[in-house]
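Let's study my pick:
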Amino acid sequence: MRDKNISEKYEFFVGLEIHMALKTKTKAFSPTANTFNEKANTIINEIDLGYPGTKPLVNKEMVRLAYYACKLLNMKIAKTIIFDRKNYFYPDLSKGYQITQFYYPLGENGYFEILKKDNDFKKIKINRIHMEEDTAKQIIKDNLIEFDFNRSGIPLIELVTDFTSFSSLDEVILFLEQLREEMLINEICSGDLYKGDFRIDLNVSIKKIEEKKYNNKVEIKNLNSFKNVKIAIVKEIKEQIMALEKNQLIEEVTKNFDEKTQNNLIMREKDQEYHYNFITETNILPITIGSDFLKEIESHKLFVLKEIKKNFIKNEIPKTQSKVILSSTILFQLYSYYVDKYTKKEDLKKIISFLATRFQEALKSNLSLKNLASDSITIRIQETLKSNDITYKNINKELLLYIIKLFYSGKINGIEIKDVLNKLLSNDKNIKKIISNFEKKEVISKEEIKSALIQFINENLNEYNKYATNKTKLEGFLIGRIINMLKNQADPRTIKEVVEKYIKNLD
């Protein structure tokens, strides 16, 4: 990786370790619910805390979702599952070891294809994927460190990229964004950075361009924002360059990115493999996966992001809209439903545009929302329900499609559509009757809107002349007045189009 904006003398290497929480109902090795936002230290049991005499129970759904991830990422898949113990002491690990897969990962030697900004695809090598359990959540309050063991035992997969795959910082961010999208649309991981369901560790090293061997790696832990990933990498590269320019040794350390100061702060010397005393987890015997289970994995339909991106490009879907569609499981499932039914590009473009704008706004007003850790790169609808249970399954897809058609025909205008969609999402019993009333509605034509515009101007010349010298203000003034004049019966989009054309012809 080279970047002339940072240095012309050095090249850089970045490896990623990504922890993704799996969307299971229960934890990795216990029947405790896999939930978030409950009162601290209430969603735990003896297995999670490692009480003497307890034994782990392997969650079959964890294994299934981990296999799906391996399949999506073109991994060589292990047919025998063996777990290990990672032994270390820290207060967030009550039993003194973590159950993981060190010696025999579930998947090895795969790749993920990212869509670059020039619309070409590039393979990013993935060394391994393994299953493991999460630790407790550390919470710092003033001078105190508290631990919430609700997170202890939540099933994770850890993905490790090849250290030499990325050729630019942009590729690192594109990989993270698109990997997250693929896991989200396949409902393997929520991808929620705010909740810590998608956490990123970095390994950064540099060397002079003419040298063959790179220097010691520095690890940066637990980043939960793509924006911060980029800042942390650039800061670390510059620090390492400064050290080498002063003939100083780059020490192998583990750092933490401090959001307040936007700096990488040293936590400790980097732990080596031998520090963890890995041993086989003797409470879980090797599990040989049966042929029926493997056939089930193989036959399960998964959405490959590369093919979806190709389809977006083919149908000329704007990147802003495709990003919104891939940011929510509900929006993506609706897109998948309609794309299988409609092959005409113009029809599909209208449907996707509606889903990414009007329908997304309706979802926002009907769901509890959170931004993702103030990350400006990607903001997603976090599907934590308010009172009504909005899921893909209970949305009437054909009725929604009919609403979309009425909207584009002008029978439902931009003001009315909000109320119609709210009633659809709340399963209003009268929704079909409400829609039938719009079917009978006469659409106000462009000619009628233009006549109303001319009439208004002629009757209100003094008011019109106040705005005539500023076309932007004039446009807003006329649009608002014509909407009121026509008693909200005309489509604001058509009014805007007529007003824009009228103002343009004034030149």
